Amino acid sequence: MYIVTLPQDLIQRNHLILASSGEKRLKTDEKQLITASTLSGTLYQGYNQVYAQLTAGSQGSIELHFELSIPSISAATFASYRDEIRQILSPEDELHISIAAGITPPPPQAATKMANYGLQLFAQQIIKEANITEHRIGFNAFSSPAACQKILLSMRQLAVVQVQFSGSLALSSHLTTTQNLAVYLPITSIVFSDGLTIPFSAYATNALVTETPQQQLTIPEHFWS
Predict the structure, then answer these.
(1) Tens digits of per-residue pLDDT, 3-25?
(2) Pick from 168, 205, 184, 161: nearest CA to 67
């Protein structure tokens, strides 16, 4: 299992990086002024480790209680970005990415597959020759077609926020101690060469626990807000 660790001050760092580069002040026709370092970086795919409070349930079960927040783009931002991808590429090309990511007509909502979408977007448009089963994949689109560059430049403008995650789940297990239990949520995180980080990390409806013993969790969509 590959753990993707996000900086605790990610949101503040992103604001500082964008402000220092002047990108927030650039108009659409001035984006060619952005340096090559903003078109390169590393894609990380794996799991975001979070913790649930564990309490004893009925015989042979435990209760997991979540009350936390995760840095991620929001569902609304994700939807807007998909609209941008349709304009940069074509509706058909965006549909191929969505299908590969497991996005089908709701339910579930598209945002539940955002980690897969981030990976498939890169696999189909940015790093076509790379092995996407690897957990760390470098990219450099400075000499790539204009569409690839626009995808990355638009991605750099995505707002990262703290997405709230709360609720309780019953789980079959013979654990008897009260403790914090590690839970692993899928994530794709794009880290540009200048440090700007865009995580596709929220709204997952699947998770993994390894101490109960290892098993998949189904996360209700309403846990996310």
Answers:
(1) 999 998 999 999 999 888 766 65
(2) 168
